[in-house]
Every structure is written in C-alpha cells, then in structure tokens.
Amino acid sequence: MDAPTDQRLLQEYLDGKAGSFELLVRRHTRELYQFVLRFTGDSVAAEDVVQETFLQVYSSAQTFDPHRRFKPWLFTIAANKARDALRRRNRRHEVPLDANFGDENETGRRFVDLLSAEDTAPDEALLADERRQAVRDVIESMPDNLSEVLILAYYHRFPYKEIGEIVGIPLGTVKSRLHAAVVCFGERYREAVRGVDQNRE
Prior knowledge:
This protein has helices at residues 6-14, 20-40, 43-60, 70-89, 104-107, 111-116, 125-141, 144-154, 160-167, 171-200. The chain is mostly helical and 201 residues long. It has two domains: 6-89, Orthogonal Bundle (Rna Polymerase Sigma Factor, Chain: A); 104-200, Orthogonal Bundle (Arc Repressor Mutant, subunit A), CATH 1.10.10. The chain is elongated, with a radius of gyration of 19 Å.
C-alpha cells in the first residue's frame, strides 16, 4: 500500500483523523531541522524555528491550497521564521556544513559534486578538516539571500520554481541569485584556501 501524500495527510488532519498531523511532523522534521540549522547555524534556534513552523502549519492548515505541493509551503514558513530568528539575533554563527569546494577547472568536478564530496583519505584528514572549516567560514560570510538559495538548491535539491516560492522571488531572480551565490562562494573559498595552504607551508 502506497504511503499517503503530504496533501492527503493534511486533509485528513483537517477532517479530524487521528495521527495524520503527527505523521506529517515525523516525515519532515529531520530535513526541515537540517535546513534551518544550515541557514541559522544555531541548533537551539533551529529547534525553535521547527517547532514554530509546525505550530503555524497546525493553525493555518485550512489556508493551504490542496492543488499545490505541501513541502514548498512548509519550507516557505520555515524560511520566513528563520529569517526572523536571524534578524532577532542580528549576527551569524558558524554554519555546520560538511562539504568541500575547489577550483572546478583544476578538479574537473561540478560545483554540486564538490559541495557534497567527502574527503576521507587518512593522510589528508587534517587538510580536509581545514577546508571544511573554510567552507563554514565562507558560507557564514555570505549575504543571507545568497546562502539561502545555495542551501535550498544544493543541499535540499529544490527545483528553481519551488525555491522561488519558498524565498518569494521570480524564477529568473532565483537563477541569477544562485549564479551570484556560486560565484561569491567560489571567489571567497579560493581566497580562504590560499590562506590555509600558506599557513601549512
């Protein structure tokens, strides 16, 4: 038997079926938490935002358009609340991203491959740790509007159209902003890695 869709579970919750909303929460909590954590860099804030997000879904379920997908709507609410949390805090912390990025011309790999790559060779473990720290520092230094689309596209694999819905920008702006984010990340990362390599010499 196929698992019920998110939209069906939400409708069943509205119809009073016990357990439907709890299943929605269990289905999406982990990924939603990872998204907010990457965006805010704060585990406590991420937990709060996830709770606030599901509370709003609970109270606003009747406003959801059943002809649309539930997940982009859920992430839209979470993104708005994460931005609010960042504004309240008024500063950024470390973003816990375990990813590597290098000069694509040197490695011959795509940006998305580099972001998700893990370097586990024992003799390069220290260098890998330093470069992962450089990734964290670079993501933290990027403007929120750029880091947000980068995280949605490369970590959560949302299509451009759904990123636009979550962030509240047109499709063309998503593409241009993501391009700007990749360029920004690449420039800052290469500069950071040069500093790491110089320190090791």
